[in-house]
What does this fold into?
Amino acid sequence: MTEPLLRVQDLHKHYREGPHTIHAVNGVSFDIYPGEAVGLVGESGCGKTTTARCIMRLDEPTSGQILFDGKDLTALTARQLRAQRRFFQMVFQDPSESLNPRFTVRRTLREPLVLHGLYRDEAQIQEAVDHVNLEREHLRRLQHQLSGGQKQRVGVARAIMTGPKFVVLDEPTSSLDMSLRIHVIALLRRLQRELNMTYLFISHDLSTVRHLCGRILVMYLGRIVETGPTEAVFARPRHVYTRALLSAIPIPDPSVRRERILLEGETPSAREIKPGCGLQDRCAFVADECLQPVPFYDLGHGHQAACRLAKEGVAPS
Amino acid sequence: MSEPLLRIRDLTLSFPLENGSCRILDRVTFDLYPREVLGLVGESGSGKTMTSLAIINLLPPAAKVEGGQIWFGGQDLLALTERELRKVRGAQIAMIFQSPRASLNPLMRVGDQVARAVRLHCGGSKKEAYEEAVELLHHVGIPDARTRARAYPHQLSGGMAQRVLVAMMLACEPSLLIADEPTTGLDVTIQAQIFALIKEVQAETGATLLLITHDLGVVSEMCQRVAVMYAGQIMELAPVAELFARPRHPYTEFLLGSVLRVDRPSELDMLQELPSFSIMYDTPGCRFANRCPYVLPACWENRPPPVEVGAGHSLVCHKYPERSEGPVLREAKGLS
It folds into this structure.
């Protein structure tokens, strides 16, 4: 039985905002196995970015465990963590903000190698550039001399420099045009194959997730509401939120008529977390049991949903 | 066949460069009819936003209109003075943009902002305008409108802020609504709400809606007709079902082929990836020529006039010389 490369156990993250507490992440648990591409999806405020940042230890979890390759990341010292960092890297959402505007591409790519004592020669950098379909002549350029798509590739190249096993990608295609998205997705798929990487892909763009990820986690208000193989979740979404999310996406095909599940109102603030399902105030199918913590119901083949509509006579797992 | 509400003819717009200028809109031509929803679709840099800004002259100061007319209500909007145009803006033609918070004054309560729009474009006393504002906020689905009217923009979510802008847009029941990517940056479920709202108000008021978007799903769900733009040129225009079923322009085919659908696991390898070269702003011909898989020698030299290839379906492309009626195709050099 393969061990998971990443194990997140009961992760909680709360922020103080004056007298209020923002409950950003409320008990998130999941495993990622080597070679997988897992999508973490949800809308703004669901806690997916916070979860990613906690995994990367860019933010400190309030409670919970994060085990990477068997090691508890929350228990490592700064020095130990730095040594581990070469194995898990991140590609950030906005390359304009995450690339140093004073560095050339070459410098940006060399830096991770130098920091981890891995720099041998220019060939390593040239290889990375080739991997992401940039030209060698781009190495001389500064950030502002690159297009959005090119900057994104630099972000990806920088993340793979140290030969990581695991890469977290935070909305890498959100700022790109549709035709560029395909290029990036094709690139990520190819890299995954060639470099044997494991991905956690965070996005609100479900069509991209569908084409990149084998497994998907749907988050709402700090909790995972549904999880499973991508095709299963897309074909038979069970949690009302997943169904609403999927039905809200416009389909580019006038011949397809879809039933749309419109949720009333907006996502409540994360200041007050009620027990039970986060969707209780907006759901057309809410019942008494939804006001208590809802267990995950097993739908087979790893597909689970924390919704009474997933029950169908199967015992909670 | 009703008269068009708005006629854009040969709209040509340029920006100055260090040496020379760059023509970002090249003879853009299309009509808008009463009560319809027309989508203007293209990728970033296609000129769709500039086209809409040109209609009510909200162009950046550096932009230079080099030619063309925009006929509305018997007048050429491009020939009006700022003063005359101000009577049209807001009252007869209203617009909303993406990033609602960028369009709202952060220091003013939203109710006051809507009231101000009402007063500016429709007149009335302060009190009347404020009452109208509260009514409009309620109409666009803001709960507790009277209380919420006292909120500042930063106290509203993105979706709520966009509803405020829709309220402002409706203030004087304009006959033409222009919405430029009104849901970019908003969550998917909120996007669905906002589009449902826009569609509702358009149907209610009988206004024409010009919807600018890069999202073909939005076009499919919201629009009756659609114009496809690339690099400042209109490539094709057709009723929506017709465009999706029988795209004629190579760029349209490419665009449709590059769409990732959420309701289907499409084969990634079958999706089209075109070589991406920079846009040829200087060519006298078609700007898609350097990426077009069907390019003919004539394509570098000139563009043919629009040709009807189906009911309400027009095309600007050398690849399809067949036509039912329309101007004779100009003799192109090198066309075999």
Remarks:
- DSSP finds eleven helices and twelve strands in chain B.
